[in-house]
Amino acid sequence: MLWHQPVMEEGSKPIKFSLWIYASISILSFFLYFWVMFFLHYDENFSSLLITFLNLILAPVIMAISCSLFAYNYYLSQIINYQYRIEFIKSKKQLWRNWAQQSLTVIGYSYVSPKENNALKIVGLDGNAESNAGQNLKIDRFDNQKISKLNFILDELLNPLIKELQKNSNKIQFDIYAPHLELKLGNALAIFNQKNNITILGNQINFLTSEPNLDSFDEWISDEQKLHVLILISVDLEPKNSEFAVALIFRSSDMLESKIGTKIYRPLKTDEQKLNNDFALLVSSNQIKKENISHMWAVNMSQLFLDNIKSNFDENKFNNINRLELFEGNIDKTHLWLAIAYACQVVAHGQKGQLVSLHNDGEIGLLQIEKTERKKEVKENKKINDFPLTYLISIILMFISISFLPHDFYEKKLILFTILCGSFFFALLLCISLPFKKNLLNKKMENEWNLLGKENNEQL
Is the pLDDT at 372 greater than 70, yes or no? Predict the structure, then answer.
């Protein structure tokens, strides 16, 4: 499934026939059938008032009602098809919304940045953060006579997560991105696991050759088995960007019995020109209500893009935009994960939803984080009464009116029996045909949806 879904028109609701149309049909059919009955019974004796009433009044009236019901049934069939179309479009929208609301539940998080607890300082929950724009910050808050920088970082990252690592060691998949540190980090991780009685096999550790990005979320969300531990360490490189390290433990929310926790929702990727339109898509997905977003964390986002996003909010209420480069100095796209860790910490300290944004190579990524107890939306399918009762009644009435045509008594009894049996089998046939009708209608709409999807993908 994709963020951009086809736009399928609902069509116009069928217009109800005017009463004059039904009246015209009734009058016309009454007089036509009246003349038919009159000429067919011309040789019979109309001296009996009852016979005259039955043949020249009641039979034409029944035929008139039958013809009117045929016309009304045509309108009802159009309404039913319209309702099916509406429900089909609603079901597609709900499937898309459920897909967009899929998330990862963060079981644990930690980070190491040059400034301790910088996330809480940035949002004003623990003093105030310093401005470090344009600087290359280093992680140097450790005694290098007692411990190496890598071991310090690994201890800081994994010590808060030890309980989860011990409890789920057989389910864990380590995804590690640490350029030029793979060998040292592998040895340090083995020592840490041995010291803390954590059994991790070699095939549970995966050193990534390229940095994880927003596309990785699709794979993680669909993973039904593993508990992922993502570790990013960006230190001891050429002095281009500020140092940092992040560890996140997460699992697909659909695989957890508890729906309570910090959720990282499926991210949206767009290009610069479509930011406004696609941000509206993110809002309509109902991951987090707009009014419940308290902070935005921006990574390499220009003021123009931030203003575009901000225009979707009440400007008087949404001013908490935290540009990471102002506090962390020189950053790159991998600092997205530091922003995510910051957002998780802020949420854990009672703040509402967090919006994280990244600008990289002409693309903008948006993801939302919140701690929620909200259950997955369940859509109740609207029951559509599609049994053609009026059609059945109109057929029965037509049969009855035809029975007034000239016959002897024996034939009349036979016709009455035929009407009863015919009505029963006709109703049975209608019941049997309904699923086939629904299936054909569904296939037709599905084909239309797929064709619109192809056209939509070609435009993208």
Answer: yes
